UniProtKB/TrEMBL annotation:
Heme binds at C150. One of its GO terms (biological process) is sterol metabolic process. It is found in: Membrane. It is a single-pass membrane protein. This is Beta-amyrin 28-oxidase-like. The keyword Iron applies. It comes from Olea europaea subsp. europaea. InterPro entries: Cyt_P450 (IPR001128), Cyt_P450_CS (IPR017972), Cyt_P450_E_grp-I (IPR002401), Cyt_P450_sf (IPR036396). Keywords: Heme, Iron, Membrane, Metal-binding, Monooxygenase, Oxidoreductase, Transmembrane, Transmembrane helix. GO terms for molecular function: heme binding; iron ion binding; monooxygenase activity; oxidoreductase activity, acting on paired donors, with incorporation or reduction of molecular oxygen. One of its GO terms (cellular component) is membrane. Belongs to the cytochrome P450 family.
Length: 203
């Protein structure tokens, strides 16, 4: 059982969450042309400085400021993980309820990310929320927070941005099912798998 739990944990952490994050990003890029255009402009500026067969470098990734803001806003609205259990280390009171030491609590990413106190008009897709110093600490937590933050955060950023670069600079995106529902299993999943029409850019 311990081996099984560890394997499932690795699969969820290294595959399920990243693929869910990439799916969410593609969904918003296909849905919001003005967001797509901003990402396309940034990615083409990077591509123009490279040879046709030249791979991306870490320096290129660091230039993808707007693209990463778009990815983070996707993670805010459609976080791959639901939340996590934590054990209280001391008695405390929250919203009029006393939580005893040793109890298990579950914090949710969704309600944290949609708190209007920290994210005005929380349902709106707005990458500018992440400009400058960005959201206050512990208000944007797709990777958790504190000493138990996901150790794969930077690897996930790399995966998402490389995927965005290679798709957006080659194709325009159009959703085959415009109002496709998102179903929540372990991670948010488009009901029909997010079929997308890829239209090559004119050369």
């Amino acid at each position: 059982m311990e081996i099984s739990n560890n394997i499932i944990g690795l699969l969820v952490a290294s595959f399920e969450t990243t693929s869910s994050a990439v799916t969410a990003v593609m969904n918003y890029l296909a849905e919001l042309p003005h967001i797509y255009n901003g990402v396309f402009k940034e990615q083409m500026e990077i591509a123009k400085l490279k040879g046709s067969d030249e791979l991306l470098t870490w320096e290129d990734i660091e230039k993808m400021k707007y693209s990463w803001n778009v990815a983070r806003e996707s993670l805010r609205l459609t976080p791959p993980a639901q939340g996590a259990f934590r054990e209280t280390t001391t008695d405390f009171t929250y919203a009029g309820f006393t939580i005893p030491k040793g109890w298990k609590t579950f914090w949710t990413v969704h309600t944290t990310h949609k708190n209007p106190k920290f994210f005005p008009n929380p349902e709106k897709f707005d990458p500018s929320r992440f400009e400058g110093s960005g959201p206050a600490p512990y208000t944007f937590v797709p990777f958790g927070g504190g000493p138990r933050m996901c150790p794969g955060k930077e690897y996930a950023r790399l995966e998402v941005l490389v995927f965005m670069h290679n798709v957006v600079r080659r194709f325009k995106l159009e959703k085959a099912i415009p109002n496709e529902k998102i179903i929540f299993y372990a991670s948010p999943t488009p009901e029909h798998g997010l079929p997308v029409r890829l239209q090559p850019h004119e050369k």
